[in-house]
Task: structure prediction
Amino acid sequence: MNIGYAASHSGLPAKTIRYYEDIGLVKPLRDTNGYRAFQESELHKLSFLARSRALGFTIEDCRTLLALYEDQERASGDVKMVARQHLEKIEAKITDLKSMRETLSHLIEACAGDHRPDCPILKGLSKVAPETA
Amino acid sequence: MNIGYAASHSGLPAKTIRYYEDIGLVKPLRDTNGYRAFQESELHKLSFLARSRALGFTIEDCRTLLALYEDQERASGDVKMVARQHLEKIEAKITDLKSMRETLSHLIEACAGDHRPDCPILKGLSKVAPETA
DNA sequence: ATAAAGGTTCCAGAGAGGGGAAGGTCAAGG
DNA sequence: CCTTGACCTTCCCCTCTCTGGAACCTTTAT
Result:
């Protein structure tokens, strides 16, 4: 199957698939005309990548997960460890964003938002930077 | 004041300050020796940038906010609009990450995580990609 | 025969800087 | 006076994950 078919069935843009080949995540065969020829197994890997990326795993995470995916002997504990580390990162990001949300929504609430120039948001942003702890 | 002082008092690395000058966010004067000479007003702008970036505003957001910051006549409503749009983006990201967290933690819970190869996480990731609605 | 729809490669750019080389300058110490 | 070390300068390449476009080739349909 050609790259267009692989793209529509994996959920990844063709451009992205070519990029994944570039960085060695997939290794499709080639037809005599030079077109990439994807096998079922490569298509599965592409879907795997699409889902992993959608869950926010980095490319390097994906490389690790793919290796584990292809290793019939691997322990599920190895996979779980990667997943759990990623879950921690996700939770850290959520915490971070929530903190931003609090700060920003306080600033917004304090601002009249009318035609007058006085603005607590800008005042808040111009305060001395917090300790870079 | 030199860039090192400006860096330590604004909370931004010197590299970042040079970059901000490159893209026109700050315009420090120069000493005769070629060193950047920051005035108080530029230092305030750098602190403003540091805080805005820490709240996740993009550089372009910062450019807008900085222009509003410097415009004594601007309406606070203009600032509030930028801030509110950004708050919406933050909230969307939080929603997104929470959804990832749900999916991932379900997968992790289902996985024994021992020495055996059977792994629901990889199985979950290898399913057909969801409709790209 | 031709045109459209696919495929190929390569180059450039995004955002937001970071790393490090090669070199100029400044202040202190011997 | 000379050196050492800490600054500062510019410059270019690297990151990460693609995305867009140009120039070109192949297949399919009309």
Remarks:
- Residues 2-4, 14, 18, 33-36 of chain A lie near DNA strand C (CB under 10 Å from a C1').
- Chain A has two domains: 1-55, 75-133.
- The helical segments of chain A are 3-10, 14-22, 40-54, 59-70, 76-110, 120-126.
- DSSP finds six helices and two strands in chain A.
